[in-house]
Amino acid sequence: MATAPCRRSILNLYSSLLRTSSSFSSYNFRNYFVAKTQETFRALQAESDPERARSMYEEAKKELGVLRRSAIVNQIYGGWRLSVEAQQTQRDPDVIKERGDN
């Protein structure tokens, strides 16, 4: 009989996956993997079968390794920033705004 992983190990894995997902330099990849991680762990939280929860946990651990390698490659070959990212930095009150028509 398999036991489900403990709450602490699930939360540690969740935070590691979120941290790794947030490290992507590409806006689209970053948002996709953050949303996918949240969706995966909501499903894991709702799972009542300990065997299924254990297999989902093990799958997420494997995914973490793949995600870490992918994030490194994405940071190396990230590409240009999107206009959506530029708009977010302009809304930041700590960023000094300069007008080009002065």
From TrEMBL:
Recorded superkingdom: Eukaryota
Sequence ranges assigned to domain Complex 1 LYR protein in this UniProt record: 9-65
UniProt GO cellular component terms: L-cysteine desulfurase complex; mitochondrion
Signal sequence extent: none
A Pfam family it matches: Complex1_LYR
CDD domains to which the protein is assigned, alphabetical: Complex1_LYR_LYRM4 (cd20264)
Gene Ontology BP term (one): iron-sulfur cluster assembly
Family in the record: Belongs to the complex I LYR family.
Name of the protein described by the UniProt record: Complex 1 LYR protein domain-containing protein
